[in-house]
Amino acid sequence: MYVFDPPRQASLAVQASDARFPVRRIFCVGRNYEAHAREMGKDPTREAPFFFTKPADAAVDTPCTIPYPPLTENLHYEIELIIAIGKGGARIAEDDVMDHVWGASVGLDMTRRDLQGEAKDMGRPWDWGKAFDQSAPIAPIKPMADVPSVEKGRIWLAVNGTIRQDADLSDLIWSVREHVSILSHAMTLAPGDIIMTGTPAGVGAVVTGDVITGGVDGIGELEVTIGPRS
């Protein structure tokens, strides 16, 4: 018995299916491509990966239109490979990680860069810059049986048809097997967890009316339009 009706389960579409993938939590890997680390003014050495989170209901299906969010004048796109966990576990060995992965997709880690920068300067968490409404548009998830690879393949993003990000999954500093294993040593992963694996170089700002397209070869593509301010 609840004091009011609980919200609907956050979920994402599944490719070629009417079934939906229930989203439990969203974990994001920070600075997981060397060139992106450099463009953000950081040392790209292979230090231990770090993570931040978004709420489950930040995830939205694509194609979609999302509003330009409040409190920012510098909204950035970040294209990312998405990993969907289907089997929970703690302290998962690298060799066993793929046994826990249900599927893969491509998504955007939308970022209020000015708010994130202020938080960094003040030594505060990144939540205000990262964890806002509809900040994780994600294409339909492809079951792993149909995914050719999460270790190599082109990952790209364009704004209004102009390529802005163009890299390969092989450029990841920490591979999917590695960073999922490391995450599982910090907390128990559960079915429905989503992991956004980091973005390559070329991040930048978008404004109302811009159309973002992007994809990961063999996995999926997305399209997101930036709507008026919310």
UniProtKB/TrEMBL annotation:
The keyword Metal-binding applies. Residues 26-226 form the Fumarylacetoacetase-like C-terminal domain. InterPro entries: Fumarylacetoacetase-like_C, Fumarylacetoacetase_C_sf. GO terms for molecular function: acetylpyruvate hydrolase activity; metal ion binding. Coiled coil: none annotated. Gene3D superfamilies: Fumarylacetoacetase-like, C-terminal domain (3.90.850.10). Keywords: Hydrolase, Metal-binding. It comes from the Bacteria. PANTHER family: ACYLPYRUVASE, FLUTATHIONE S-TRANSFERASE. This is Fumarylacetoacetate hydrolase. It comes from Sulfitobacter alexandrii.
